[in-house]
Structure formats: C-alpha cells, structure tokens
Amino acid sequence: MLRYILVNVVGTLLRAFPMPCRTGLVKIGNPDENSPVFLTGNYCVTVERVRRVLEREGIDCYLLVANSRDINVWCSAAGGHFTNHDVVSALKTSEIEKLVRHRNVILPQLAAVGIEARKVREKTGWNVIWGPVYARDIPEFLRNGYKKTPKMRRVEFPLTQRVEMATMWAFPFSLIAAFMAFFLWRSALIPLFLLSWLLPYAIFVSFPLYSRFLDSKKRGPGVSRYTVIFDFGKIPLIFKAAFILLLVAYGALTGGLNLEFVLRWGFASLLIILMISIDLMGSTPVYKSGLHEERLLRVALDGERCTGCGVCVDVCPRACYEVDGENHTVMMPRADKCVQCGACIVQCPFEALRFEAPDGRAIPPEIVRRFKLNLMGKRLVRVDEGRV
Description:
Elements: H1 2-13, E1 24-28, E2 37-41, H2 44-56, E3 61-66, H3 73-78, H4 84-93, E4 104-107, H5 117-124, E5 127-130, H6 138-143, H7 150-153, H8 159-184, H9 189-205, H10 207-210, H11 225-230, H12 235-254, H13 259-277, E6 298-301, H14 311-315, E7 322-324, E8 329-331, H15 343-347, E9 353-356, E10 362-363, H16 365-370, E11 371-373, E12 379-382
Parallel strand pairs: 2-3, 2-4, 4-5
Antiparallel strand pairs: 1-3, 6-9, 7-8, 9-10, 11-12
Helix pairs in contact: 1-2, 4-5, 8-9, 9-13, 12-13
Keywords: 4Fe-4S, Iron, Iron-sulfur, Membrane, Metal-binding, Transmembrane, Transmembrane helix
GO molecular function, one term: 4 iron, 4 sulfur cluster binding
Pfam families: CdhD, Fer4_7
C-alpha cells in the first residue's frame, strides 16, 4: 500500500517525465493454466494501478509488463515507442505459453493506436483482446466474459484526472516561480508559489464549465497551429480578469493598491496563465493537441470494404462508431467527438477506414500503421518489424 501511494504521488508530480518499471512476468494471486493474461507497458504508475485493482479484487492472473520506453500506454503506442515487436517479445521471452492452455492476451484498449492485433497473432499465435480503457473496469470486464460496455471503451476527463493534470503543471511551475522570485522579487516568493498552484487547479477543475467552447479544429485564413496552442477561446481572459478583480480588491482592502502593485502581479499572473494554457487541449484525453496538424483530418469510411465487424467500435476511445447490423456496416453518429487517434484505422482488418485532409488528400492505413507521431505531431516516426 505504501509503495502504491508513493508511486502515485511521485508519478503525479512528475507526470510529464518517463517513469520506468521492470519488464517481465508478474504473478497476481495464485494463477493456473486457465487464468487470464494481461499485458501493459512499463510505465510505473500504470503497472501499480493495474496490480492494485487485480490484487484488491482477488483476481488470479498473469501480468506481462512489456517495454513501452517508460511511457504511458496511449502516448507510447501513438508515438511508436510501444510496438508490435514489444508485445511479441514480451509474449515469447516470458514463456507464458508454458503456463496457460489458452492463447488470449488482454491489452489496454488505448494501445490499439499503435499495436496491430493481426501482426501479434501472425507472429505468436496469440489472440489480442482489447481490455477496458481504465483498470478499474477490469473486474466487470472479466465477469462479462471479456466484453466491454460502451462506458468501458470511452475515455473521460473526470475530476480526479483533472486534479492530476493540475498538479503536473503546478509542481514544476511553482518551483520555477519560487526560484526566480528568490533572486528577483523575494518578498513575493511565497505568494507566487501559492499562485502557481492555485491557477492550474482553477483552470483544470473548472474545465467542464468551458470545455464546450474549445475547438482544436480551428482553421481558416490567419489561423495557425500556434494560434490554437495559445488560444482556447476566452478562457484565459476570463481567468485573467477574475484575478485582476481579486487583486484590486485585495490592494484596496490592505491599502497597498498602486500602479506598481497591479503591474507586477498582473504580469506574473499572465505568465503563469499562459504557461498553463499552452496546448490545454493536448493535456486532456478528449481533445486533439493544437500541436498536431492531424486535428484537421477526418476519418473516411469506404462502404464497399466495410463488413460491419465492429472492430472500430471496440477500439474507439470516444464512442464515435455504431454498428448497423441490417446493412452490415458501421456509422459514425458522433464523428464530432473524434480525436484522430487512428486506432480504428490501424485495427480495421478490411482497410475500410482512412484519414482525409481538408483538401481531399487521403492518408491510407499503411501510412498510419507504419509512421507514428513525434512530439510536434508530425507523422515521421517509422516503425518497421521491431525497429523504431
């Protein structure tokens, strides 16, 4: 329990940095030859949270920890750091086939953006089952016979995650602010430190109040990706105005209201708000990053190829798809929710899906599978048979 708490605290404070965990086979409880086999990446926070759920629920199973380069599953798979080769390697080197009779391995659904179930099956004979998005749903997923409810497939941004993201931003910025204040404005060191924690929490905790105004697909004359990075509607202005009002009220009540007071604190708060609001949408799981040009793409369906198999429904983290059983095809009634992760394109066995740019240019499935996104959102990271 102490380790679990420590890993989560440190992992939250340093969320922006890789956190390694030992790879290999972990036995949970007393598994036998019929026990389920789970596989995840070697991001320490993820492994501890999955273990915690499995142990708390008394689930006897095997947990394979594969090399995701110490990064969380979604980011590592999308960026080409968690690949088919890593899953194949984990299955073969662990010799898990000697411990169980079945050949089913449960992977996190969010790994579907980069790991091809078909390739894993071809190279190992193991069938990939996409588990729920969140570890908390694993017990119900097992009780349902490895079937997910719509809620299990969908990413959310609840209060707990928003608090984690606020903490991730607040911790480094508060240290930077305190360090600079120590040399330049020592009397404001403690207030600036506290402000660096207050503003991130205000922005992320209140996210549901303004999220409907966010638009990562802004485009048009004079609109660049850098404009989107720094602009998420009128929210910065609202927070800034609210802070200035509080500042003026405080200065008036304490008798310290003057031009220097307002300018200093106004400038300091503006810097903090701008730093926190950089790519706010990319800090959430429900919007595409403003850094990524792919935010302007749409997923196109080839009706002649689609058979309505439902793989896209199973891997889509935003519940964009529904199966039309009568016509043996799929529909996208919630296409506006798409975050262009590409999981549906990567996993479609009939190559019925592809990206299309606003100018009509098509990005075929083989490109999405072979080239992954770098930090700037460019599809440049090449993945070839175990090499990145």
